[in-house]
Each structure stands twice: as structure tokens, then as C-alpha cells.
Amino acid sequence: MIEASTTQIWIIIVGMAIGTFLIRFSFLGLVGDRPLPAWLLRLLRYTPVAVLPAVVAPMLLGTKADTDPLRLFCAAATILVGIWTKNVLWAIITGLGLFFGLGAVIG
Amino acid sequence: MSLSPAAQQFLKGAKDGLPFHIVIWPFAAIFGAIATQAGLNVVEVMGFSILVIAGSAQLAALQLMTENAPTLIVLATALAVNLRMGMYSAAITPHLGKSSLLTRAFAAYMLYDQPYALSTIKFEKEPNLSLSEKLGYFFGAAIPIAIAWYALTLGGALLGEKIPTDIGVDFAVPVTFLALVAPMLKTPAHLASALTSGVLVLVLGFMPYGSGLLIAAAAALVVGAQVEIWMEKRKAAT
After folding, report:
1. For chain A, how many structural domains are there in total?
2. pLDDT band at B1 (very low <50, low <70, confident <90, very high)
3. pLDDT tens-digit profile of B166-211?
4. Is residue B165 over pLDDT 80?
5. Does B40 touch chain A (CB under 8 A)?
């Protein structure tokens, strides 16, 4: 159970709201329509592939992760189907379908 | 019936966002349920989902709050989880930077994982979209998912204990991100960048408060851009 006071809870909620907004607004707000240099634009084109694997890898393989062969197998299947079909929906259906399907079978 | 080009893009964004509803609905409901079970009231739970809209940071904060971590640690950790969104802001700026300050502020509020990823992928494929078309697509991807996020959080908070929270729905998050990334692994540069990111973050796992993530991501950006330059040079040489 959470023992924090109502004030503490709202400090956390409002603090997270303002902080998260400022992070998201940073470049969009400050740079606006000023042109960015070509080298920076080249870097930024890689943000999805550079950021998301770093978010995912610790969830699957990190020291605090709930690493089990079923999850790793389903994660690998998600990647392969995603590369093969180039379709986000099929990749999600494959990953979660296998996870819950096999999970139910294996128990 | 003829729709403006921006409205057409809004519908395309909403359509491309549909797969994520499979993940967002249970995720939001479970956040609402476990937050209520941990002792938050409905207003507080909705405060999180409406003011913050960042699922993984909300869950991280909730986890720390149930462990009675100090308020400052909760805030610092949750914001560290969201630091990656600074890169989202940078990545979307070349596309949406020309819009009005108010529009940019609203876009920033909704700049969470799915609209960011869908939009940057779309705008890379179709660089000739006008500003209003890009805004249409972005908000089409963002608004329906945000509404689902609010609504299902509320549902989860009201149903509370009736929702089973221990069915492995946390696995939906990595699956979503992998499903987003996999179709993008179409060049050696993208592949090298993704591998650098995933491997380096594990090597840097000892670093506090998710700071390893930022270093891994920054290195992966450089690797991607550098491999792209090499490939162009090789092509030019042959």
C-alpha cells in the first residue's frame, strides 16, 4: 500500500506532468522552425531504431528482468515477423498470441 | 464527401494507430486497477493518466510509491524513464517545428511513444507531406490512443480488484516496441544502430536511473549515421 500523503502524491503527479511536458516540448518549443544542420538531421533519422531497442533489451534481458525462455522466444518471433511482413499489427499479434497461447498450453 | 488533405491524414494516422489499441487497452486498465489497489483514489489515478500520459513512467512511479521511496527519488526515476522523449522532440521538430506555439505545445503534450514512432516512420517515407498533413497524421495517431488511455484507466480504477493484474500484460510493452522497430530494420545502418542500442544498454546496466539508456541510444544514433555514410561511399566507389 502507498503510505504517501495526499500532498506528496500530488507533488509526484504534478511534478511528473510538468517535467514530462518540458522534456517533450524541449526541441519542439525552443528550436521551432529554425533549420537544423544536415548532420543532425541524419542522426535524428535513426532515433526510433536507436532508442526503442535500448528501452526493450533491459525488460527482456536485464538483471531485474523476468527472463524466461517463453518471453525470449516470443520476442524473437515478433522481430522476425515484423521484418518479414513489415507490418506492426502482425508482429504484435504474433508476439502476444504466441505468449498467451503457449503460456496457456504450457501453464 | 470530400475531406481536406489534413483530415485524410488524420484518418490515416488513426488507422495506423489501431494495432496499438490491442496493447493500450489492457495496459491502461491494469494501471488503473493496480493504482487503485495500491491505495490511490480515482482522481489521483486519472491525474496520472491525463496529466502525464506515459505508461512506463507511471508504472515505475507507482512501483516506487508502493515501496515508500522518497518523493524526490520517485520523481527523478520517473522523469529519467521519460528522458528518451527528448529525442522524440528533436526527431519531430524538423517536421512540426513550423506550426504555431500553441500547436507545438499540444503536440508536445501528446508526444508519447506510439505517435512519435508512427509519425517519424511515415514522414521519412513521405517527406513531401505539407505541414497541415503532417499535423493531421500526428494527431490522428495520438488523439484516439490518448482517449483510450484515459477511458481504460478510468475503467480499471473503477473496477479495481475485479481486474486480474497478474496475467503477464507487462510483456505487451516490449512486444509493442519490437513490433515497431522490426519493420524499420531495412538497411545495414538501421540494423547496426538497433544492435548497438540493445547490446550497449545491457553492458551499461549498472548505471543508475536509466542513464545507460541515454548513452546507448546516443551511441546507436552515431553508429547508424556513420554506417549510412560508409554505405554511400561504397556505393559511390563501385
Report:
1. 2
2. low
3. 777 778 778 888 988 898 898 999 999 999 999 999 999 888 766 7
4. no
5. yes
CA distance B66 to B43: 18
Tell me, yes or no, whether A55 and A30 share the same domain: no
Mean pLDDT of the residues in chain B? 90
Residues A7 and A57 in one domain: no
The reply to whether B72 touches chain A by the CB within 8 Å rule is no
Contact B65 A11 (CB under 8 A): no
For B224, the closest of A10, A49, A91 (CB atoms) is: A49
Query: Is A40 part of a structural domain of the chain?
Result: no
Give the closest of A11, A19, A51 to B87, CB-based: A51
Q: Please check whether residue B147 touches A, CB under 8 A.
A: no
How far apart (Å, rounded) are the C-alpha atoms in residues B90 and B50?
23
For residue B62, CA distances in Å to A63, B57, B73, B161, B173 come to 20, 8, 12, 16, 17
**A16 to B61: CB separation less than 8 angstroms, yes or no:** yes
Contact: B174, A91; criterion CB under 8 Å: no
- Shared domain for A25 and A52, answered yes or no, is no
Residues A61 and A98 in one domain: yes
Q: Is residue A11 part of a domain?
A: yes
A42 in any annotated domain: no
- Both A56 and A100 in a single domain? yes
DSSP string, A21-64: HHHHHHHHHHTTTSPPPHHHHHHHTTHHHHHHHHHHHHHHHSTT
> How far apart are the CA of B122 and the nearest CA of chain A, in angstroms?
12
Domain span including residue A26: 1-34
- Residue range B88-115, pLDDT digits in tens: 999 999 999 999 999 999 999 999 989 9
In a domain, A54, yes or no: yes
Domain locations in chain B as residue ranges: 5-184, 185-238
Ordered alpha helix ranges (H), B110-181? 113-125, 131-159, 172-181
Say yes or no: A61 and A90 in one domain: yes
Q: List the single residue in A4, A8, A78 with the smallest CB-CB distance to B179.
A: A78
Residue in A44, A49, A103 nearest the CB of B181: A49
